[in-house]
Amino acid sequence: MKICVLPGDGIGVEIIAEAVRVLEALRSDGVKLELEYAQLGGCAVDATGSPYPEATQKLARAADAVLLGAVGGPKWDVLPRPQRPERGLLGIRKDLNLFANLRPAILYPELANASSLKPEVVSGLDILIVRELTGDIYFGEPRGITIEDGKRVGRNTMIYNEDEIRRIGRVAFEAARKRGKKVCSVDKMNVLETTQLWRDVMIELSAEYPDVTLSHMLVDNAAMQLVRAPKQFDVVVTGNIFGDILSDEASMLTGSIGMLPSASLDENNKGMYEPSHGSAPDIAGKGIANPLATILSAAMMLRYSFNNEAAAVRIENAVKKVLAQGLRTGDIWEDGCKRVGTREMGDAVIAAL
Ligand code: NAD
Fold first, then answer.
1. Which residues contact residue 204 at a Cβ distance below 8 angstroms, ignoring those fewer than 6 apart?
2. Is 220 in the active site?
3. In the chain, how many domains are there?
4. Radius of gyration over alpha carbons of the chain, in Å?
5. Is 223 exposed, middle or buried (0-12, 13-18, 19+ CB in 10 A)?
6. From the alpha carbon of 275, which atom of ligand 1 is closest?
7. pLDDT tens column, 83-136
8. Domain residues for 157?
9. Is 234 in the pocket of ligand 1 (CB under 6 A)?
10. pLDDT of residue 255
11. pLDDT tier at 199, thresholds 50, 70, 90
């Protein structure tokens, strides 16, 4: 398994170190890994002037998977847009054709109090948001701000072709087959023609997956249902802009951004794996960041890119075990638990493996 490791900026360096130690612990158990490090984001801008330099492109393209910490920080916010760390992130996603973003939102029973919702509404929550990542209004043309009849006019284009819808639909149906066998497709077909096509294609595709139940929901209702009764969902599939908003909403149901992994996949299950949170400049370098989202991202990498379900489950069970032992980093700490730092949490997961 050839893995391109991109620690990035801020806490990225600290949390990636722990995820790599967990993978190394599996290596001594026979999991074959080849790790190569490169730069992405602000650190790459400092070293080369580009947030996604050529050397990183080469390694990322040649690898079977990419493991990323996080990028960005106030230091680089003043740079012209093409040099901002976030451009590196968009660049690598586009370069590797990562069209499918998978974000599980799982609430471990031990962390039920961390959610802003009542424990009975969220305890045991386990949903997967599948978001299309390379199309929709974020990339559609024409776009821009122009002057028309002496007035400024802003314009973006919502556009999907049926192939793009079908391939993200397949990712959702396949994922549902390995879980609760339910897909909820989210659209706005009452107003937007693009999403009428989205719904039509999902219905056509569902004929190939008779073992999976397909339902549909308008995006405004989906936003409401996610906070009213989130456990009704298994897999939610939606376009880029709706998915951007709904996946953040779903992740916060768990109340602990430091716990949430993500995967972005291409058509051959090559993927980039990263925590859902950012580089947390406010706590960078203090050794207190929660490494679990990154460790769980490494587990997703083993599952989706390397088809090693057993190793993935081993990591996930180790994480459950340390939570059951009462170990918590500051972001998820509560009375009666033991507060630990980044390294200590990594040590505990390795011991639990
Ligand atoms: P953030 O996710 O970095 O931080 C939000 C809050 O959550 C902060 O208080 C932070 O301390 C806390 N937090 C985040 N991860 C944590 C962890 N693992 N353990 C403990 N606490 C944690 O979001 P932000 O502050 O809006 O952004 C900071 C920088 O990160 C910006 O430059 C932004 O552009 C960038 N960013 C990068 C990514 C990415 O690399 N994928 C994603 C989001 C934001």
1. none
2. yes
3. 2
4. 20
5. middle
6. 41
7. 899 999 989 998 999 999 999 999 888 888 888 899 889 988 999 999 999 999
8. 107-259
9. no
10. 73
11. very high
Residue 202 near residue 165 (C-beta atoms within 8 A): yes
Which of 6, 72, 90 minimizes the C-alpha distance to 284?
72
CA 264 to chain centre: 7
Which residues of the chain form beta strands (DSSP E)?
2-8, 34-37, 65-70, 100-106, 126-132, 144-148, 151-155, 182-187, 213-218, 235-238, 261-265, 271-275, 327-328, 338-339
Nearest to 215 by CA among 231, 243, 234, 194: 234
Here the tokens at position 322 are 């340390």
pTM of the complete model: 0.91
Last residue of a domain, one of 235, 259, 283: 259
Res 13: pLDDT: 97
**Is there a single domain that holds both residue 42 and residue 130?**
no
Return the pLDDT at 253.
87
Is 149 among the catalytic positions? Answer: no
Which tokens hold the place of 346?
Answer: 């990594």
Q: Which atom of ligand 1 is nearest to the CA of 8?
A: 40
pLDDT of residue 258: 87
Q: Does residue 170 sit in the same domain as residue 216? A: yes
Domain end point (choices 259, 288, 321): 259
pLDDT band at 337 (very low <50, low <70, confident <90, very high): very high
Q: What are phi and psi of 116, to 5 degrees?
A: -80, -10
Cα–Cα distance, 294 to 19 (Å, whole number) = 6
Is 68 in contact with 272 (CB distance < 8 Å)? yes
* Catalytic residue flag (residue 138): yes
Dihedral, CA of residue 313, residue 316, residue 321 and residue 322, to nearest 10: 150
Residue 209 CA from chain centroid, whole number: 25
Does the C-beta of 345 come closer than 6 Å to ligand 1?
no
